[in-house]
Amino acid sequence: MRRVVVTGIGAVSPCGLDVESSWKAISQGESGIAPITRFDAADYAVRIAGELKGFSVTDYIEKKKVREGDAFIHYAIAAADEAVKSSGLAVEGADAEMVGTIIGVGLGGLPVLEAMARALAAKGPKRVSPYFIPAVISNLAPGQLSMRYGYKGSSFTTTSACASGAHAIGEATRAIRLGELDACLTGGAEATVTGLGIAGFSQMRALSKRNDEPEKASRPWDADRDGFVMGEGAAMLMLEEYESAKKRGAPILAEVLGYGTTADAYHMTSPAPEGEGAQRAMKMALKNAKLNPEEIGYVNAHATSTGVGDINEVLAARAVFGSHATDGLAMSSTKSMTGHLLGAAGALESVLCIQAIRHSVLPPTINLESPIEEAEGLNLVSSGAQEKKIKYAMNNSFGFGGTNATCIFGSL
Question: What angle do CA 184, 21, 108 make, to 5 degrees?
Fold first, then answer.
């Protein structure tokens, strides 16, 4: 089986418009959550989110092409440009047929969808843009990227709610291991900080209403948590077959070692009791990586700041890691700073796992003041970032419908 390595990473997040600035803020425990500015949220029960700050689409795309894609595609392009540039991968001729674009997108183009619905209602069908459909369908994220860089290998979207980005990375890894691709641009993108997006999740009672203290609203594992905070952005990874990456002198940042994916087959929105499906995903990823549980030094948890989800992930971690869960393992939730990027969450958090390995720094869980009883004895990195050299890191991503994905990264 061929080895897969990461040679480039890119990100635009509520904490920064590239990997360096995002990592600096997150590793220092700085929140990117603030009052919503994208639309007038005065009449909404939830008025906070993790928005991109200072993002200008024309820094990445010429003005006349902006209408061809929704914001999630714009974010994907921004993060991809950074990942491609940092990898140094140049593709020509027949080589392009072995380079893919596999991108996770959870909900697709809500901003343009809302705008076109308003245009239709107010002015009739002729005011709907001819770019409407290609702007909002999820596979135009990888589609636009394949055209932008000339990659002619597999190009598709993984859509599995909040596990979309992690599934994309896992499926890209699998394709390279099997020899179907030699390289793949992969990750996730999402742009759902819209009136419809916020209202929909709010009506489900899934979102925090801590509007007066936005930076304290996302509180994974805290007894006073009241829901997650919506975030937006994108993160991309350039994956390559190890031998070819080494031959061309590529900057190898980490190795993708394990991938596990399961279904709860339990409930539309709630996880299975004790995170049974999550347990199987983690165990599958460990087996795939040929690692023992005690070899994992850090887990970037899915932990979104919801009642049932946070508890079940803790119980799942205890079941998988045994005594190591309280004796050596560190686990944190960076969603406490970024909010929940839905389909992009697993991709951004995979980038953060890679950064944790590279910099020997474990990013913190902020706002964890009164840990839930089920988390007693766990190192949830709640007192600021921890300096610790680790060789292997795990990222968990779980989504509505009972879909679970776990990825494991390691240093070479």
Answer: 50
Q: Is the pLDDT of residue 132 over 90?
A: yes
* pLDDT, position 67: 95
Is 162 noted as a catalytic residue in this protein? yes
- Give CA–CA dist 226/51, Å, rounded: 20
How do strand 298-300 and strand 330-332 relate by DSSP bridges? parallel
Distances 198 to 62, 195, 208 between C-alpha atoms, Å: 30, 5, 11
- DSSP code of residue 61: S
Residue 255 near residue 242, CB atoms below 8 Å:
yes
Burial class from Cβ neighbours inside 10 Å (0-12, 13-18, 19+) for residue 56 reads exposed
Q: What are 159's two structure tokens?
A: 């859509």
Residues 354 and 409: beta-carbon distance below 8 Å: yes
Encoded amino acid at 387, one letter: E
Q: 15, 74, 184, 340: which one is catalytic?
A: 340
DSSP 8-state code for residue 206: -
As a whole number of angstroms, the distance between CA 139 and CA 69 comes to 11
Q: In terms of CATH, what superfamily is 4-254? A: Thiolase/Chalcone synthase (3.40.47.10)
Q: Cα separation of 287 and 273, whole Å?
A: 23
Known catalytic residue: 302?
Answer: yes
Q: What confidence category does residue 93 fall into, taking pLDDT thresholds of 50, 70 and 90? A: confident
Which member of 15, 74, 162, 353 is catalytic? 162
- Which two three-digit tokens encode residue 49? 């989110």
340 classed as catalytic: yes
Q: Give every CB contact of residue 405 below 8 A, 6+ residues apart in sequence.
A: 160, 163, 166, 167, 170, 259, 260, 261, 281, 346, 396, 397, 398
Of 15, 184, 302, 353, catalytic: 302
Determine the topology of domain 259-410 in CATH: Peroxisomal Thiolase; Chain A, domain 1 (3.40.47)
Mean pLDDT value of segment 138-164: 97
Which alpha helices (H) appear in 100-247, and where do they start and end? 110-123, 132-136, 140-149, 164-177, 195-203, 242-247
DSSP H helices, 257-388, are 276-289, 307-321, 335-338, 345-359
In the chain, where does the domain assigned CATH 3.40.47.10 lie?
Answer: 4-254, 259-410
